[in-house]
Each structure stands twice: as C-alpha cells, then as structure tokens.
Write a structure and sequence with these properties.
With 263 residues, the protein is an alpha+beta fold. It folds into 2 domains: 2-91, 2-Layer Sandwich (GMP Synthetase, Chain A, domain 3), CATH 3.30.300.20; 95-189, Ribosomal protein S3 C-terminal domain. Helix content is 45%, strand content 22%. The chain has helices at residues 2-30, 57-61, 66-78, 98-110, 115-128, 161-167, 213-224, 238-262, and strands at residues 36-44, 47-54, 85-90, 133-140, 148-155, 168-176, 181-189. It has a 4-stranded antiparallel beta sheet with strand order 5-4-7-6. A 3-stranded mixed beta sheet has the order 1-2-3. Strand 6 (168-176) and strand 7 form a beta hairpin. The N and C termini lie far apart (98 Å).
C-alpha cells in the first residue's frame, strides 16, 4: 500500500512538470513576437496562477485584453488546468534575460547575419548590460552542410554543479535556415553574483568591534621610533656594497680563526 502510494506521488510530480513544460512551449510559441522572457507557476487555493514575463506587454494583452483572454481560455481547455489565471509582467532589462537574448540571436541568424557577428554582438550587449559573464553556444549547420558547434564566452562562467544552477540563467531558441536548423543557447551569470570562493574579510571597525590593544602598541612603536643618522643606511653604489660585503665576511672569518687559536 505504501509503495503504491509513493509511486502515485512520484507520478503526480512528473505529470505536473510535463504539463508545465508543455504550457511553457505553448506560450513561447504564441508570444514569441512580444519577447517571451519566462514563466513562473504559483499554485493558489483559487487556481493555477501563471506569471508571464515579456519584453512588450501590450502585444501579450492585446486590444481590451482580447489576446490574454484567448490564451487563458486555451490553457483551461487544452491543458486541463484548474481555473488558470494568466498575468503579464514587463522585463526591466531584456539584455540580461537569457530567453529573450536567445530569441533575438535566432532571429538575427534567420535574417541572414553571419554567425560570428551575431554571437559576438549578443555577448557584447549582455556584458554591457552589467552581466558578470555569458556563454553562447550555436550548434547545427552553422556555416556549411556539416553540423558543428561554435561557442562565444566572456567573463565568469560556471558549467555545472549547484553554483551553475543558482547563478546562471539559461535560455534556448531555434533558428530555421535553408541549410537546416541552428540551436541557440544563451547562459548569463547574473549581475552582482558572488561565487563560493570569493570571501570578503572585514576589519574590526567595519563590524563594530574595537581594535586590539597590541595593534595600538605596534603602530605607535613603528611610527614614533625615530631613526638616527648613524643608524640610517647610507646610499651606496653596487661596487661599494660588494666591497662592504667582502669586508664583513673577512672580519667574520678572522674572528672565527682567533677563536680556534684561543682554544
């Protein structure tokens, strides 16, 4: 009984994730011209709330809400969502949204841009917007009949692990050309990201603690101890320094010889 209930729970989570992935593909296809930037699902007692992030909110809403109402109706009928509620939010910085930049890159390739120009231009726009790093991967029939992969990267990049999942925003789009399709993957490290190996050491004054007593003593002794003219090291040339070193060695050897004779 327990095993069957556990399998049912796992199957429920799998079906829910598959359903959300299908909803994302549907809304991406329908709102691609408006600059689709991502989805956020929220389960509420009143139903399923879907927050869509777009570059151009007006194209998603439509005249008097005609387009958004039609999308909500199709979500309820085609995907069997419980009372779905679709909301639209504006993307403040499109250049830092990986999905928007991936769609722009695919659109540039379809319009005939050379792949190096499109990739370098996209990377430059992302870094100028304040991103800490970016990775752009073009895979497919990029410049000929054979498949190949071309990468463009700048700044800090994390490829795998928990750090990559928490700090990198990934977007994907497809460019359809005459020779074939090209997959466009854009990964952006968010601005202000602090990596695990980056430590910030604060002084005692910054954290509100008094300095240690020996700090005062060492500082005062270094600052207040004067140096006499006899103790100061005079300026010497290289030849004079060599002669002084040889003279010091001769004096040390003479002293050691005198000690042996006395013994």
């Amino acid at each position: 009984m327990a095993k069957g209930s556990k399998e049912n729970i796992v199957r429920t989570f799998i079906n829910r994730n598959v359903e959300r992935h299908l909803v994302k593909e549907f809304l991406l296809h329908e709102t691609q011209d408006a600059g689709f930037g991502g989805l956020t699902f929220k389960r509420t007692p009143e139903g399923e709330m879907i927050v869509l992030e777009a570059e151009n909110v007006g194209r998603v809403i439509g005249t008097r809400g005609r387009i958004i109402n039609e999308l909500t109706r199709r979500l309820e009928e085609d995907f069997n969502l419980y009372q779905p509620k679709l909301e639209v939010g504006e993307c403040e910085t499109p250049a830092l949204n990986a999905q928007i930049m991936a769609s722009r890159l695919a659109s540039s390739l379809e319009r005939g841009w050379f792949f190096r120009r499109a990739g370098n231009s996209t990377a430059m726009n992302i870094m100028n917007a304040g991103a800490r790093g970016c990775l752009i991967v073009l895979s497919g029939k990029v410049s000929g009949a054979r498949n190949r992969t071309q990468k463009f990267q700048a700044g800090h990049i994390k490829f795998c692990g928990e750090t990559a999942l928490s700090t990198m925003d990934v977007g994907y789009s497809v460019a359809v050309k005459k020779l074939g399709t090209i997959g466009c993957t854009v990964a952006i490290m968010r601005p202000g990201t602090r990596l695990p190996n980056e430590l910030i050491i604060k002084s005692r004054e910054e954290v509100g603690l008094e300095p240690l007593p020996h700090d005062y003593e060492i500082t005062e002794s270094i600052v207040q101890t004067p140096v006499s003219e006899d103790e100061a090291v005079p300026d010497m040339s290289e030849e004079e320094m060599v002669e002084a070193s040889v003279q010091a060695l001769l004096e040390i050897e003479a002293g050691m010889a005198d000690g042996r004779e006395e013994e």
